[in-house]
Design brief:
The complex is a heterotrimer. Chain B is α+β, with helices and mostly antiparallel strands. Chain B contains 15 helices and 16 strands. Chain C is globular.
Chain lengths: 95, 488, 484
């Protein structure tokens, strides 16, 4: 399968990966090769087969609604790129 | 030709759990920024979600309350998008298998304009699903940057999606209010709109009757009923003007500005959405057994609609009164409590009297002072004492209103206020007969006219007698005595 | 001492023949000498390791030592360890000092084990040669011109070169078994859900599983006793009774039915690998096993299925690396979107970006059913093949990798060639089954060959028994690389 440059650009944008034209082109060629590999899967008849999301057929376990966590802001924010007044700072969010 | 308005709502209700939906961090409102943002809330590498039983229980409660199908098996999915208040880069939500399926909510609509009468309408609920809330962006003074507080991230939400069944702002507001009342009624959400516990997204479109649905625009994050009405009104007019002006409505996510009363498209949502939903591999299917469902059902209080039906059928109230009294669980509790006190302590079974006073005097005064029923300075047992005196004829209706006002502003019990203000009615038959005798004696000519057939003069005698009693004569008794004595 | 088993080291420590501090220092000295050549470790913290060793010695003195108390292990750099730089092989986490411990780490800590350091790995565990690490390639101790395999390549090299007593790995598509095979050591990927994933940086959540890597099956069994067990912080952790994984080590193999999937012995496998694997099967026959030919007809689809499912999950799992709360943030950016795009473009390496792109594409609108859903359905078919097969046999055997260790840079820029080197291991992850690799000889250029043993769900104790009996009869597992 051959991907277009536009496909790759759209995916890079969705995945928030900055890519220049040369990188887009390399990715396009490589991804096309990988999708050729994946294409083998398309011919399989999977009618009536339930998709398998998990290795085990087990139901979700539930947690009691009790507070177990304490304030660890100082430890967590010690490794943050930019904080002020207890907040994580990012370039301005425009709504 | 007129336009038809089509409105559907998506309501995010924060569930009143102690902890977050996928971690044991507190959800208490108003904490210092990021002090309730635990490892899961800030999405440290390697951390994993574990589902809060309390959140699921609340979802089941809601489903049962709207008569919906509770999915025996539902699935959590990831909704992928980047935003600084969404730490994982995806929101854990439910997509094609939500926990609550189709249900209904019956609402009382009070038209906002004209003389149209209130009417009942049943709105279909499409589904309700569990998901996690995002954090908050703070646009303070941070050198032109935005601050992110993740305390709210991971707070459990039940997103309740309606069918586009509403066709006016009044219906949309009535639905939102009924839903707001219901989630508080069943105790799954505190309903605090200022704190964002109950947030509405409203999808609005317009069309000519008989035409297919128009393109909708979604007004995000309305947190007051007043704004909802204003926003819908503005948006509907904008869409009509746009189309009539030859333009086309483009699908968009918009915000309402309460200061200007206008709506505008959000700039940050310009990207075409492609959320790449897929089942969250960190969470297994949520299974709800029949047994668990029944356990939850047993904890549900009597629901507003059942209560309304009982008020009408057993207590003889009007449908309107019943719906007013079940506007909130607190209101119904106040009514029930007043009625029970009146019955058990005074042996007076008079729901209608209680209803009239609560819907009338009490509600009017609460509205005037912008209070809700839980803040009413007169407690139910105090009101029942006053109503007992009304029922027994100790005081007149107008006297009772004066007692009520005094109780409201100064406190105190009805009995001592009646005594202090000398509001007691004259119900002593001897005293009333003496007054009537005196009037007949001093108005012989009018008495003669009355007796010769001029019935209209009866009112004249009542007026004189009331004046003579300084307004305190029991009106029913006075009527009886006057009729008997005038008959001669 | 360097060739002692965990059992022997534990006994020596408890008999005070050596202290944990001495043993830890012995390894630290050896690491200081050999790691510059091999690059097996990303982070060392000698003071922390020695402090742990001193605490272990106190515990030993108090006679409260457990089986692994005082023994120095290495931890794959995918496990968050409090106070340790935890990079996951990525520039994205070049400065991430974890504020918490993964479940696996706290299990080792509670057992009194020593953390010698964090081992190198393919970036975010995406790779089969350890060449995608931001922290440089790892060299295979048997031939430093060759790759150690991946993604747990640092661990495999460290164990093979005796730079630790044993170590941890993780396996999403073969990342324990393939490097174990290429470096001539033993490695076990347990049944999905047996070892908690809490604190293990996620690659593909429904496939990732941590496991032990060491020099013998017996060592792996002792490590499993520490690593396995229910953890309430991982929803996919299974609630099962605690097991003693050493319990069946000494059972005879008489009557063992070994299934050989005909698909594994068809085309693709190197002749040298085939020869070693066949010799191993012959050895098992001598030990009393019988051979059954089985078929795993859908296993040939496991590579395409895997390269849809794993990147899809990864694309989402790696969205949290956005430069906001921890990790790498680009030094310059014009606005929020630019900050995201540059931080992620600069913080992730080429292979990680490639997989994020594949995953994003297969999940995106209009492609979901054709790719993701179809892959999940075939995943079930692959799992059903195994369930059918286990009606006829007790364990399945075959090669771990189609070839021995290849040269650094040999597979260069062709991701598809690299992906195909996982052809025998991936189906096991898709099914959620336990799999292991043990050394079974040497192939071309005297490089080690691995025998893969695939068990039924929760059959780890039997697999360890099967491996241990072979290791009693052969000495491939005790061979050490020359010249180190």
């Amino acid at each position: 399968m051959s991907l277009t440059t536009a496909d790759v650009r759209k995916v890079a944008r969705l995945a928030r990966l900055a890519m220049n034209d040369a990188e887009i082109e390399t990715a396009r060629a490589q991804l096309s090769g990988i999708f050729d590999l994946i294409a083998e899967m398309q011919a399989v008849d999977t009618g009536g087969i339930a998709p398998m999301s998990h290795a085990q057929d087990v139901a979700q376990r539930l947690r009691e609604d009790k507070v177990t966590e304490t304030n660890q802001r100082e430890a967590f924010q010690a490794i943050a790129p930019q904080v002020e007044a207890g907040l994580y700072l990012v370039p301005q969010v425009i709504e | 030709m007129t336009w038809e308005i089509v409105i559907g709502l998506e309501v995010h209700t924060q569930l009143s759990t102690n902890t977050k939906i996928f971690s044991g961090a507190s959800t208490a409102f108003g904490a210092e920024p990021n002090t309730q943002a635990d490892a899961v809330s800030i999405a440290l590498p390697g951390v994993l979600p574990v589902l809060n039983k309390g959140a699921v229980e609340r979802a089941i409660k809601f489903g049962l309350a709207v008569g919906a199908h509770i999915a025996p098996r539902s699935v959590f999915a990831r909704k992928n998008y980047f935003y600084p208040d969404l730490p994982k880069g995806y929101q854990i939500s439910q997509f094609d298998l939500p926990v609550v399926g189709q249900g209904t909510l019956t609402i009382q609509v009070e038209p906002l304009s004209g003389n149209a009468k209130p009417y009942e309408k049943t709105v279909r609920i499409t589904r309700a699903h569990l998901e996690e809330d995002a954090g908050k962006s703070m646009h303070g003074d941070f050198h032109g940057m935005t601050g992110i507080d993740l305390n709210r991230a991971g707070t459990p939400l039940l997103e309740i999606v309606s069918e586009p069944d509403m066709c006016s702002a009044a219906e949309a507001v009535a639905y939102a209010k009924a839903l707001h009342s219901l989630v508080r009624w069943i105790g799954i959400c505190d309903g605090n709109m200022q704190e964002g516990s109950f947030r509405c997204d409203v999808n609005v479109s317009v069309r000519k009757p008989g035409q297919p649905l128009g393109t909708r625009r979604e007004i995000k994050n309305l947190n007051s009923f007043k704004f909802m009405q204003q926003a819908i009104d503005y948006e509907v007019q904008w869409q009509i003007d746009t189309i009539e002006g030859g333009g086309k409505v483009q699908q968009a996510t918009i915000l309402f500005n309460p200061d200007t009363g206008e709506t505008r498209a959000m700039r940050s949502k310009e990207d075409a959405h492609d959320y790449r939903y897929f089942p969250d591999p960190d969470l297994l299917p949520l299974e709800i057994s029949e047994e668990w469902k029944e356990q939850v059902r047993a904890t549900l209080p009597e629901l507003p609609q059942a209560k309304q039906a009982r008020y009408v059928n057993d207590l003889g109230l009007s449908a309107y009164d019943a719906s007013m009294l079940t506007a909130s669980r607190e209101m119904a509790d106040f009514f029930d409590s007043t009625r029970m006190h009146l019955d058990t302590e005074n042996d007076i079974d008079n729901p209608k009297l209680c209803a009239n006073w609560i819907i009338g005097e009490v509600t009017a005064q609460l509205n005037r002072e912008e209070l809700d029923i839980t803040q009413c300075p007169i407690k139910a047992y105090q009101l029942s004492e006053l109503l007992a005196y009304v029922a027994k004829g100790r005081i007149s209706n107008s006297g009772a209103k004066e007692v009520f006002r005094t109780m409201w502003t100064e406190g105190g019990d009805a009995d001592s206020i009646i005594v202090r203000k000398a509001l007691e009615q004259i119900s002593d038959s001897g005293a009333i007969e003496a007054i009537v005798d005196e009037i007949i004696a001093t108005n012989a000519d009018k008495v003669a006219e009355y007796r010769s057939g001029k019935d209209k003069l009866f009112g004249f005698f009542v007026g004189l007698a009331m004046k003579a009693s300084k307004g305190k004569a029991n009106p029913a008794q006075l009527n009886d005595v006057l009729k008997r004595k005038l008959a001669g | 001492m360097l060739n002692s088993s965990l059992q022997q080291l534990g006994s020596a420590l408890r008999a005070r023949k050596i202290s944990s501090v001495e043993l830890t220092q012995l390894y630290l000295d050896r690491i200081a000498k050999l790691n510059p050549q091999l690059n097996a470790y990303i982070t060392l913290n000698p003071e922390t390791s020695l402090a742990q060793a001193r605490a272990a010695d106190v515990r030993i003195a108090a006679d409260s030592a457990e089986a692994l108390t005082g023994i120095p292990f290495a931890q794959k750099d995918i496990f968050c360890a409090q106070g340790w730089l935890t990079t996951c092989g990525s520039k994205m986490l070049h400065n991430f000092v974890s504020p918490y411990d993964a479940h696996v780490i706290s299990q080792f800590n509670d057992a009194g084990a020593i953390n010698l350091g964090k081992t190198n790995m393919d970036e975010f565990a995406m790779g089969s040669s350890n060449e995608t690490s931001h922290y440089g390639t790892v060299k295979n101790p048997w031939d430093t011109a060759r790759v150690p395999g991946g993604s747990s390549g640092g661990t495999a090299a460290a164990v093979a070169a005796r730079l630790c007593a044993a170590a941890t790995g993780t396996d999403t598509g073969g990342s324990i078994r393939q490097p174990a095979a290429l470096c001539g050591i033993s490695g076990l990927k347990p049944t999905y859900g047996v070892v908690s994933r809490y604190g293990m940086i996620a690659f593909a959540s429904s496939l990732d599983q941590a496991g032990p890597m060491g020099r013998s099956a017996e060592d792996l069994a002792l490590m499993m006793n520490v690593m396995a067990g229910f953890d309430e912080r991982d929803s996919t952790s299974l609630q099962r009774d605690k097991e003693d994984y050493t319990r069946d080590l000494n059972k005879p193999l008489t009557g063992l039915r070994i299934g050989l999937p005909k698909e594994f012995f068809a085309e693709g496998m190197g002749a040298d690998v085939a020869k070693a694997v066949e010799a191993a099967i012959a050895e098992y026959k001598k030990l009393g096993a019988t051979i059954v030919e089985i078929s795993l007809p859908n296993s040939k689809l496991s590579v395409p299925v895997y390269y849809v499912l794993a990147p899809a999950e990864a694309s989402s799992n790696l969205s949290r690396f956005d430069g906001v709360r921890y990790g790498y943030r680009a030094p310059e950016y014009s606005d929020l979107a630019d900050m995201y795009e540059k931080s992620r473009a600069q913080g992730f390496g080429a292979e990680v970006k490639r997989r994020i792109m594949i995953g994003t594409y297969v999940l995106s609108h209009g492609y979901y059913d054709a790719y993701y859903l179809q892959a999940q359905k075939i995943r079930r078919l692959i799992a059903q093949d195994f369930i059918e097969a286990y009606k006829q046999c007790d364990v399945i055997m075959g090669p771990t990798s189609p070839s021995t260790a290849f040269k650094l840079g040999e597979k260069g820029d062709d991701p598809v060639q690299m992906y195909l080197s996982d052809i025998y291991t991936i189906a096991v992850n898709l099914a959620g089954l336990p799999g292991m690799s043990i050394p079974c000889g040497f192939g071309a250029n005297n490089m080690p060959v691995g025998l893969q043993i695939i068990g039924n769900y929760f059959d780890e104790a039997r697999m360890l028994n099967v491996a241990h009996q072979y290791q009693l009869a052969t000495d491939w597992h005790s061979r050490a690389p020359h010249g180190l």
